[in-house]
């Protein structure tokens, strides 16, 4: 007998049937990066037998505040410095590689098969740098794009939807990582073929190398 809150999934964890006027708690999940697993998430079943509803965000509420690790100001300053160094590194790489590509394309004396592979390698790293910089500047607090989040009652929450822009950005970012590593392998493979099978390499050209390098 008595009132119970029905078991529910809050988007992060599953909560069992809970008696009314009861506060249930569970260990913070280990599969959420940055959560402190030694602390507890809390969800309240009201005396009416329904889960506590937060009117500020217009949905039932689970308190994960104790799960989030608070960073000291010194640690945040360190993260800001790392972010600045990363931005400078990717920016310098993008500028220097773009200049190298322009020089190699504009000068006819550089129009060799091996240099075409070098250009593709540089393009792959430019591609990676562009989407890495976009990820840094378009994400809010490193969690999601600003268009996918909104603030209600002082809380940042995800908007409902497919979030296809975020998915596309991350897909292209990881594709950039994959092809940049792939082109390092292609460069090494081509050099190996030059050393040991020079005639075969000259006859077959570099089309297969280019196709393989960008197909990752």
UniProtKB/TrEMBL annotation:
Task: Give me the segments passing through the membrane.
Answer: 88-107, 119-139, 172-196
Chief localisation class: membrane
Could you confirm whether the keyword Cell membrane appears in this record?
yes
Q: What organism is this sequence from?
A: Octopus bimaculoides
Q: Which domain of life is it from?
A: Eukaryota
Q: Which UniProt keywords apply?
A: Cell membrane, G-protein coupled receptor, Glycoprotein, Membrane, Receptor, Transducer, Transmembrane, Transmembrane helix
- SUPFAM superfamilies, alphabetically? Hormone receptor domain
Family listed: Belongs to the G-protein coupled receptor 2 family.
Protein's recorded name: G-protein coupled receptors family 2 profile 2 domain-containing protein
List the molecular function annotations (GO) for this entry. Answer: G protein-coupled peptide receptor activity; peptide hormone binding
The places in or outside the cell where this protein is found are:
Cell membrane
Per the record's keyword annotation, is Transmembrane helix included, yes or no? yes
- Gene Ontology CC entries for this record: plasma membrane
Question: Which InterPro entries does UniProt cross-reference here?
Answer: GPCR_2, GPCR_2-like_7TM, GPCR_2_extracell_dom_sf, GPCR_2_extracellular_dom, GPCR_2_secretin-like, GPCR_2_secretin-like_CS
Give the membrane topology, semicolon-separated if more than one.
Answer: Multi-pass membrane protein
- Ranges where the G-protein coupled receptors family 2 profile domain occurs: 1-71, 82-216
Task: Output the GO biological process annotations, alphabetical, semicolon-separated.
Answer: adenylate cyclase-modulating G protein-coupled receptor signaling pathway; cell surface receptor signaling pathway
Q: Which Gene3D superfamilies does its entry note?
A: GPCR, family 2, extracellular hormone receptor domain, Rhodopsin 7-helix transmembrane proteins
